Amino acid sequence: MLDVARIREDFPILSRKVHGDVPLVYLDSAATSQKPLSVIEAESNFYLNANAAIHRGAHALAEIATEHYESSRAAIAHFIGARPNEVVFVKNATEALNLIAYGFSNATAKFRNGSQLLAGEERFVLKPGDEIVLTEMEHHANLVPWQEVVLKTGAVLKFIPTTDDGRLVVDNLADIITERTKVVSVVHQSNLLGTLNPVQLIGAQAKAVGAWFILDACQSVPHMSVDVTTLGADFVAFSGHKMCGPTGIGVLWGSSEALDALPVFLTGGSMIETVYFDHSTYAKAPAKFEAGTPMSAQIVGLAAAVKYLSDLGMDAIAEHEHRLTAAALSALQQIDGVRIVGPTEALNRGSAISFVVDSLHPHDVGHVLDSRGVAVRVGHHCAWPTCRRMNVPATTRASFYLYNDESEIEHLVSGILAAQKFFGVA
Amino acid sequence: MLDVARIREDFPILSRKVHGDVPLVYLDSAATSQKPLSVIEAESNFYLNANAAIHRGAHALAEIATEHYESSRAAIAHFIGARPNEVVFVKNATEALNLIAYGFSNATAKFRNGSQLLAGEERFVLKPGDEIVLTEMEHHANLVPWQEVVLKTGAVLKFIPTTDDGRLVVDNLADIITERTKVVSVVHQSNLLGTLNPVQLIGAQAKAVGAWFILDACQSVPHMSVDVTTLGADFVAFSGHKMCGPTGIGVLWGSSEALDALPVFLTGGSMIETVYFDHSTYAKAPAKFEAGTPMSAQIVGLAAAVKYLSDLGMDAIAEHEHRLTAAALSALQQIDGVRIVGPTEALNRGSAISFVVDSLHPHDVGHVLDSRGVAVRVGHHCAWPTCRRMNVPATTRASFYLYNDESEIEHLVSGILAAQKFFGVA
Amino acid sequence: MSLESMYQEIILEHYKSPQGKGLREPFAVEVHHVNPTCGDEITLRVHTAADGTIDLSYDGQGCSISQASASVMFELVQGKSVDDGFALEAEFLELMQSKGEKSGDEDVLGDAVAFAGVSKFPARVKCALLGWMAMKDAVSQNIGVGNGR
Amino acid sequence: MSLESMYQEIILEHYKSPQGKGLREPFAVEVHHVNPTCGDEITLRVHTAADGTIDLSYDGQGCSISQASASVMFELVQGKSVDDGFALEAEFLELMQSKGEKSGDEDVLGDAVAFAGVSKFPARVKCALLGWMAMKDAVSQNIGVGNGR
Ligand SMILES: Cc1ncc(COP(=O)(O)O)c(C=O)c1O
Ligand SMILES: Cc1ncc(COP(=O)(O)O)c(C=O)c1O
Fold first, then answer.
1. In the beta sheet, which residues pair with residue A272?
2. pTM for the full model?
3. B218 has catalytic annotation
């Protein structure tokens, strides 16, 4: 059991007031989480004691900085069951997913231009009609980059459909993921619906047809114990800021084999082997994907975040959230006129809970909640097509994390009742 | 005149010892600068009081965070004489330069695939044989991305040559930048040679032939007053970490016209206008280039950095560095066996000074300096082809910033003498 | 900041009984505007009569603020000259960008001054402007001064 | 950490008078390795004789550590069997990765134990390994166990 009162002391912002003197009830961690003091201090301390350009210096400070950098990589890798050289640092999950998508469009553009491909790159060349399979519940970050790939390659998008209660339809996967499929990219846990998807099942079918399998783990890695090597994926992407880490840092995990084959994305300093005016050769992964001066302080901060999470225990965190989710789902469904958008039971689902209130627009619900200090998110949550699929223009979303407790569910519920009363719809 | 003693109090790391009890002499600011307390605190305070997902929330904290974000953008824009909506945030200058280069390869790939181009994108389509003009003194970050564009489009690279003392040869620009030229991308101030380039001249020729003109301003914006609108450039890139700002934040400035026309790069959340399963439309700049959750805390930190620099005055900083540079150049040239790689006079040059010591390898020079607390950088400084052009395998580079003083030049000189003595070459 | 000061009675009334809602023919220009952060939408048609007056119709979905504001906009602009319509838009935009500093001139803006409180909430300002921006865009296109967006 | 403990006398001697430097023929495999962070380079040729012993030649440019280490490597490996050469490489690699914790077995590594101090400087470890990695790569290719890099 998490000692939430103790934990909240690590997050000073949770004690702040909003709108003058209203205590904050922060239910927007699916958008971004708050940061414990240990993370904030890790970043500051890096600047105060260790800051220097890493991997380049022949001086003491540069070596200290490099040591911070590489031990952070090792800690973050360990947190997801990976080897350090399989962890690539990016600025956020969006960059990670684009990095992979660009692997395909870059390989294809080089191929079409008649340029020589490097070993393995041919596995990323797409031909017109080749298929990319996503789901109907992707975040824009795992949809729009593939639409761009389509425009550049002539490949085609297909979608694993969603049921009306927000589960993936997986009984006819073999009809969707076929010999024509070259890429399968799927959200592990939906940020809009909360659904935890059966990714092993989907991954197995992807592998059966020889397709690359990519996971958007933005909403799973922060909330449960994830061992990337057991998911059957070639690539896994997630963001630091949703898991108690700093802004400006994300992770792309790839199997060594996959990272070795994947074409480079951003190019420049630190990712090269040799450079001539007319051509260059590149370093091995992870360096080959880390062009330019890295977000060193943020990487050190993320390492502090995974230490914070590990010390509490990811299983304890998951269990805590599961309890809150079950309680919130049941409390919300007891309100007349409230409908959950997504699975209505806590089984195989995360703590992001979207709902609509009859005759009330989410913006107005959110506004009334905010006036009472309850911070939720309203809108399409960067999954606009999924909203359309679920027949809602937008939703209100409450999401829970390790620092939330039952009393905050009560604030949420009484806020919704107040909104209904204010607008005269209940 | 800068009060360096006062300034150094703002940078606690400069008082630290290395290798036990040796005081640090930090002469590696061209690689990355140190951060004043006000910057470190701005980041911490953001996390402690204002952290939330920006541009998305309908709650008080999200509005506070957004306000921080946008007022930071305004401050940073003001610092370079720009309008806020011309400032795009990226993770570093390398990403900024790649973002532009990808504008060309993306437009070309869509065009070749027969996809419809958006308004203005046709101006970024490259045909085989179209020319991209760089200089012989580019950082890898402004060379390798263009080599990748060549592989994808069939365009051709050309280089403005460098003289033996590290100046650009600009008397026959019209022979190099011609009607075939579609892009001219040039470093404003070289990180290896220190040369400040006549960019207005080059820009005028670029405009005369209708080419896009791009500036790598990584080494100028931190060190002198730069008004991006007076340089004749369409795009200007620089990094926060070299100008007292946090790691993980960089800036791409573009004229409104250029940013409107440039194709999108990273795609996903926050950069869209509408999203459907099969296609999307995009927001206007700068949002269209800022996919995903931004580096909010780092942006706030960079705003604190530009405030710090502005309070001291960029002209005062430039003058201070000019004085140090002149003194260092003359002191170094008085050492037997030391040769400057780059301009030997402080005129039109920055404070990054590369040199070689006869019969000593830069690694060994750097090591001896380091043992005496003097932090310099050794190697090719991410400008490897430029080293070859200058007939050196590598150099030792000392670089000065606002917190350095004359006494540190003495440490540098005595360190070089000690290295010569230790290796028995003087 | 009390809820009541933002959601003034008059806003709630327009939300419950929007004026002029429903698309009509004939029209010269139709535009579709969305608020990308929340998905609110408006479709707006315009037909500038021979005498230079604006004839509008619209439909949309969204929050109380965006819907009420579109309704108020319709009341104010319908039948006005293009110049008057644009002047109203400029006046309302200024009020919305005032961050709660202005209260608006009731003689000019009528019911629209009720939105003054909204200007304190940056996230909601876009809601209040949705209908007005669509109007300006459509009328601009109709009179041929280019895409106003 | 004194300079002397890293730059042991024996290293400086090898640097000033490198053993076996200069490319020779015949050779079966030639490799070119660089240290991308500083530009140090080595070209190394190998020819594994009928009796299974290694015949090396090399040329390069770089810092005292990389040049001295290549010279010591040449002394140790030249004329040895492939197995012995690889065993030496493994032993030296372990020393270099010891972060100053190990001093190396002089009976096995000979002059190469002088590099023990280098293992405390991560930035210089790559210098010390450059020649060894090139040797391992070239010999691996020569005996057909694939690209050792
Ligand atoms: C001239 C120049 N251009 C580009 C860069 C790349 O900047 P960053 O590594 O911050 O992306 C640097 C610094 O490394 C530089 O000095
Ligand atoms: C499921 C999912 N995928 C991708 C993203 C994008 O992450 P980021 O904005 O950190 O790049 C998010 C969060 O916004 C998310 O919830």
1. A282
2. 0.96
3. no
